[in-house]
Amino acid sequence: MKTYDIVTIGGGPAGITIAKNLGKVMKVAIIRPEEYSMIYCAMPYVIENEIPLEKSFKSDSLVTDSGADLIRSAVTRVDFESKTVTTEDGEVYRYQHLIIATGADPILPPIPGADAKGVFVFKTGRHLREIKETIDKHDIEHAVVVGAGAIGIEVAQALNKVTKGCHLVDMTPHVLPNLVEGDMIPPIEEKLIESGIQLHLNAKVEKLEGKEWVSHVILDTGEKIPLGESAENDGNGPRGVVVFSVGMRPRTELFANTGLKIGRQGILVNDKMETNIKDVYAVGDCVQFTSGITGEVVPGKLATNAVPMARMLAKNFIGDNRQYQGFFNGAATKVEDLFVGGTGLKESEARNHFDVIVSYTELTTIFPILPNPKKIKMKLIADRKTRRVLGAQMVSGSPVIDKLNTVTLAIQNKLTLQHLAELSYAAQPYQSFYPANNIIVACAEKILDQLRN
Description:
5-stranded parallel β-sheet; FAD/NAD(P)-binding domain; Enolase-like, domain 1; alpha/beta; 7-stranded mixed β-sheet; globular; 3 domains
């Protein structure tokens, strides 16, 4: 029986981070069943043929070059008492410390007809390959994407480019409900409509119709979306695809009835990523954790949460004493030629906990006297009493992530509007607005002016 200092179940972003940080200083095994670990954010761009499929695969050398062992197998049993892990091929591995990084599975709602051919979820390399092969092999005419979050929107845009048209369905009143709100939404939805994507908002999928292949999507509004010209016939031929992107469920079935404490959002851990079982830790999408702002349990199934969790845990193994602060959920997407991002709390969320005040500012991302200046609009959310920064949203013709990360840092460190107003910033004609102003500073000053008046 092979013994390791650390056995990690899962080879996604969190598992790879453990290997890269500890593989050369401890005896580490990474166990994963998948043939490849994926660059998940790149997957929609494979569908639209922007990048080849194989470029979305992460190299196994990310694990093996670190000194860790990569074991390609599925774990079938974990015995916390004997500190052993058993894989599907009958191998047993002993651990001193176990890290659970099993990730999450996409949800396929129990809708009549969801088992028809042409119906997919979207998360793994297998899902991507199945969708890509279906589109490439068959005369697919139309697509329906259910779920208008960041992933759903990116998949819808990709499918819209490789079929005759795509429909986007969501039960909420607007797209990107977890990222932006209010006045930030119209330009995003306008871009989607201009591209040819048909929006069906405030609508649920009631059932899917078709004999062998899905041929129609029936909404609770009474709408019936046909998936191809031949769909009115017998529904036996592949004319369309339906992709569900409606959320993720933590992959924790392996640990049922083992004594490991599991909540609705995932495995329960403290701020050191320790579970209720000694020498057992959990990181990434399989974990339940809290907002770094409100302390409430919130979803946070993002690679940009999984990696910091795993890095923090790894550093603690080699002598640090770090604590995970919680989810701030900074995230971004691209809608046609618009770059969209949000971080912290939305205004609607913040109002449940704080006396909220907001501001909007619009500038250009380069000197406006230069050719083709792009606009950026920012919404800043703060607490009226303490002036603490709570959240921000941005929509721009240029990338927003660097600005978004600046605000996230302020939120993490409980900085105030005064801190943002006093931000020391750089300026250059092709990289910023005039030195006279900065989008983050301008938003903060607007709120301070409101408070002063």
